[in-house]
Amino acid sequence: MQSKMIQGVEVPEIGLGTYKLIGKTGEEVIKQALRMGYRHIDTAQNYLNEKEVGNAIQASRIPREELFVTTKIDRFDLEPDKFLKAAEQSLLDLKMNYVDLLLIHWPNPEVEIRRTLEAMLSLRDQGKAVHIGVSNFPMSLMQEIIEELNAPIFCNQVEYHALLGQFDLLDYAAEHDVMVTAYSPLGQGKLITNPLLLELGQKYGKSSAQIALRWLVEQEQVVAIPKASSAERLQQNMDIYDFELEDADFYAIDDLDKNMRFINPGFAPDWNS
Ligand SMILES: NC(=O)c1ccc[n+]([C@@H]2O[C@H](COP(=O)([O-])OP(=O)(O)OC[C@H]3O[C@@H](n4cnc5c(N)ncnc54)[C@H](OP(=O)(O)O)[C@@H]3O)[C@@H](O)[C@H]2O)c1
């Protein structure tokens, strides 16, 4: 597994997305992924599976420092006291003393972001979160927290894949050495029937999913967290390092229409702000 160097820290480029990996079955998938070599795991308070993630990691006996674990705190818990309580609960459920990356899951305009950031920084100072960051933050909010509030942001986790563009955010992330974690990197599975990705899959002897993931990790600052639940797919999503996209193919994927957003709940921010 290759890594991206972000702010001097190595982060495995492919992580396991765990949304919907719940209960015993979900726990088994996470265990299997760890056995196969996944070392980057993405969870969230509201996936209701932090216990499963914790159990799987404990059972794996992989030294904690070899793992990169991210969790996210709900937008209803951004008031500092609630945030601190939620983060402590996450650590209990995950059965660990710290997470590598603690994120605000979605922005919430009802809570002044400066106050949430202070709570996050206190957790960082106590060693309970090595890095802090955000998720689903459009450019204007990124600029506010980085330029006005000087927040030491490590990551913005956003929907990003071959059918949704994030060009401005990527430029900004490169300028400030911020990681962009691509969530739903396979468009929740809908990308795998894309004709161009299928055609390129044939050319390189890979699946369309592997082409989609390879295109992401070939980009500066980008890591991806595909979710899969079979051994075959888990393996496929890691096996993207024995080929490289030719420039023309990389740019052909770049040129696909980029307006297909699959995750857009009513409380989402104005993505173009
Ligand atoms: N921050 C946020 O607000 C946010 C929002 C959404 C997601 N996320 C994170 O991002 C992760 C990934 O996103 P996602 O779960 O929405 O979607 P995704 O990873 O884009 O797609 C997952 C779907 O693709 C299928 N799949 C996986 N590998 C495949 C392969 N090699 N070939 C064919 N199909 C394949 C999976 O099937 P099976 O599972 O049946 O194998 C599943 O149906 C989540 O699990 C979560 O950790 C974060």
Identify the CATH class.
Answer: Alpha Beta
Biggest sheet features: 8 strands, parallel
CATH fold topology: TIM Barrel
The percent range for helix content is: 25-40%
Which distinct ligands sit in these coordinates? NADP nicotinamide-adenine-dinucleotide phosphate
Shape type? globular
Q: What portion of residues belong to β-strands?
A: 15-25%
CATH architectural type:
Alpha-Beta Barrel
The ordered string of helix (H) and strand (E) elements is EEEHEHEHEHEHEHEHHEHH
Number of strands: 10
Contiguous low-pLDDT stretches (5 residues minimum) are none
Number of domains: 1
> Terminal Cα separation, in Å?
35 Å
For CATH, the homologous superfamily is named as NADP-dependent oxidoreductase domain
Structural class: alpha/beta
- The DSSP helix count reads 10
Radius of gyration: 18 Å
Mean pLDDT: 98
Structure, described:
The protein has 273 residues and is α/β, with parallel strands linked by helices. The chain has a single domain, classed as NADP-dependent oxidoreductase domain (TIM Barrel). The chain contains ten helices and ten strands. The strands form two sheets. An eight-stranded parallel β-sheet has the order 3-4-5-6-7-8-9-10. A two-stranded antiparallel ribbon has the order 1-2.
List keywords for this structure.
273 residues, alpha/beta, TIM Barrel, 8-stranded parallel beta sheet, two-stranded antiparallel ribbon, 10 helices, 10 strands, 40% helix, 17% strand, globular, binds NADP nicotinamide-adenine-dinucleotide phosphate
